[in-house]
């Protein structure tokens, strides 16, 4: 047994003894792969193998790993301070990042509330919507409307607006606050959305509008709920309905923000401004956890003038200076480069590379948008048996449900993209036929 192999087995044994991984039993059913370093688009395993990361660490490492610009930002901020409480205090990284975010998002979104993670950003958005309605004397407006097949996070509030049937949180259904759900749009991303697609949500707002504080959606791309793409026109029509029925509109762009769909924000496909916007994941380029919830001045002022005179939320690590400094560096790095061209290059490579999967009987659909490539199967994937097949081919892809998909870093080369898509098609082709 080599030293590398021995070290790998020791790490795996300790992991199985001590740790509990996401969406997994403990110990996990499948193999866990110890990573010792990462650079560019490659993960280096303890046994010396390297994997091309097709997941960008759950969609956030848009610049790849160990980037010198982000490294310098962390080191420079560390010389000043790693953290300071945000209650009664402020600091330059938080201010500069807020200036940057309000500059690159739609103009009405002028207030920034920082939090720890995407799930918390959604919690914050939901609380903002409800507290806003309460401050307006509309305390009965306490429910939200969400799309089926949507996903918004793992905390309790976020779980309550995830798909109640096919989502990952159906076991908690009896203890979650009940909200309203409507069918997800089924209009192609490159088409207008027919009025018939709006009937269900329009009827719900007409019948239950006095109870509804806000509608929450993932614009254009429904992520972990199914990697579904839909027409931006749906968002334009939904905005008009929300205005007509005095309901706020929340966009969850945690997965889609910062270029993933080919636009800096997915809302730009529709040229629609929400009342509240949630950002996270790629905000720091995958270096550390940070999220932001942006709101209009009307929401901010109304809540601030209401009972208590304050918004009732405050994470301990809110606006962490290290994370804010890294986020500034990541966003500025993205904007300083021809990122649209790179994302378009990736979209073309994914489209070409995954196209052969359309001929496989196991495959229901192949779709791409921006730096997102999806092979949807007819039957669910057995993750424990499939994951090692990707590792053997030198790529890291993490399927779920019926989906074998990738969201690569924007710096991935054409050659690596070809290796990634080739492995996806090859492994899918070895699965039981449809």
TrEMBL record:
PROSITE patterns in UniProt: AA_TRANSFER_CLASS_3
Binding site for pyridoxal 5'-phosphate: 118-119, 252, 315-316
Alphabetized Gene3D superfamilies for the sequence: Aspartate Aminotransferase, domain 1, Type I PLP-dependent aspartate aminotransferase-like (Major domain)
Protein name, as recorded: Adenosylmethionine-8-amino-7-oxononanoate aminotransferase
Subunit structure, as described in the record: Homodimer.
Residues binding substrate, per UniProt: 58, 151, 281, 314, 398
Modification type N6-(pyridoxal phosphate)lysine: residues: 281
Regions crossing the membrane: none
Record's keyword annotation contains Cytoplasm: yes
Family: Belongs to the class-III pyridoxal-phosphate-dependent aminotransferase family. BioA subfamily.
E.C. designation(s): 2.6.1.62
Reaction(s) this enzyme catalyzes, per UniProt: (8S)-8-amino-7-oxononanoate + S-adenosyl-L-methionine = S-adenosyl-4-methylsulfanyl-2-oxobutanoate + (7R,8S)-7,8-diammoniononanoate
Keyword Lyase on entry: no
Location in or out of the cell: Cytoplasm
Gene: bioA
Gene Ontology molecular-function annotations: adenosylmethionine-8-amino-7-oxononanoate transaminase activity; pyridoxal phosphate binding
NCBIfam families from the UniProt entry: bioA, PRK05964.1, PRK07986.1
Source organism of this protein record: Mangrovimicrobium sediminis
GO biological processes: biotin biosynthetic process
Cofactor: pyridoxal 5'-phosphate
Residues the UniProt record annotates as site (Participates in the substrate recognition with KAPA and in a stacking interaction with the adenine ring of SAM): 23
């Amino acid at each position: 047994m080599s030293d590398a192999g021995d070290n790998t087995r020791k790490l795996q044994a300790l992991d199985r003894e001590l740790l509990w991984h996401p969406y997994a039993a403990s110990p996990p059913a499948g193999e866990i792969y110890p990573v010792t370093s990462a650079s560019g688009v490659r993960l280096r395993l303890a046994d010396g193998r390297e994997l091309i990361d097709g997941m960008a660490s759950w969609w956030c490492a848009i610049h790849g790993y160990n980037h010198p610009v982000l490294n310098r930002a962390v080191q420079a901020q560390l010389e000043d301070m790693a953290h300071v409480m945000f209650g009664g205090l402020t600091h330059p990284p938080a201010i500069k990042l807020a200036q940057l975010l309000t500059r690159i998002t739609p103009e009405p979104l002028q207030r920034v509330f920082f939090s720890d993670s995407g799930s918390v950003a959604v919690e914050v958005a939901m609380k903002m919507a409800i507290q806003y309605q309460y401050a307006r004397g509309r305390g009965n407006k306490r429910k939200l409307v969400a799309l089926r097949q949507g996903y918004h996070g793992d905390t309790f509030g976020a779980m309550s607006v995830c798909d109640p049937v096919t989502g990952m949180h159906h076991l908690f259904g009896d203890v979650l606050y009940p909200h309203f759900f409507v069918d997800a749009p089924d209009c192609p991303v490159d088409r207008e959305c027919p009025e018939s697609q709006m009937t269900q949500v329009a009827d719900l707002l007409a019948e239950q509008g006095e109870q509804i504080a806000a509608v929450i959606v993932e614009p254009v791309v429904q992520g972990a709920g199914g990697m579904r793409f839909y027409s931006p026109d749906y968002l334009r029509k939904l905005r008009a309905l929300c205005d007509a029925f005095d309901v706020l509109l929340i966009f969850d762009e945690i997965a889609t923000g910062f270029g993933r769909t080919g636009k800096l924000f997915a809302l730009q496909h529709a040229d629609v401004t929400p009342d509240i916007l949630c950002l996270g994941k790629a905000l720091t380029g995958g270096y550390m956890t940070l999220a932001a919830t942006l709101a209009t001045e009307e929401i901010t002022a109304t809540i601030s003038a209401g009972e208590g005179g304050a918004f009732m939320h405050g994470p301990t690590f809110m606006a962490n200076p290290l994370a804010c400094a890294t986020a500034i560096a990541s966003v500025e790095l993205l904007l300083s480069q021809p990122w649209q061209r790179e994302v378009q290059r990736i979209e073309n490579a994914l489209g070409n590379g995954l196209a052969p999967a359309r001929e496989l009987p196991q495959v229901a659909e192949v779709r791409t948008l921006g730096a997102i490539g999806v092979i949807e199967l007819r039957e669910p994937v057995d993750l424990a048996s499939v994951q090692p097949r990707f590792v053997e081919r030198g790529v890291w892809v993490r399927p779920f449900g019926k989906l074998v998909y990738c969201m690569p870093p924007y710096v991935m080369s054409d050659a690596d993209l070809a290796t990634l898509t080739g492995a996806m098609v090859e492994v899918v082709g070895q699965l039981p036929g449809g």
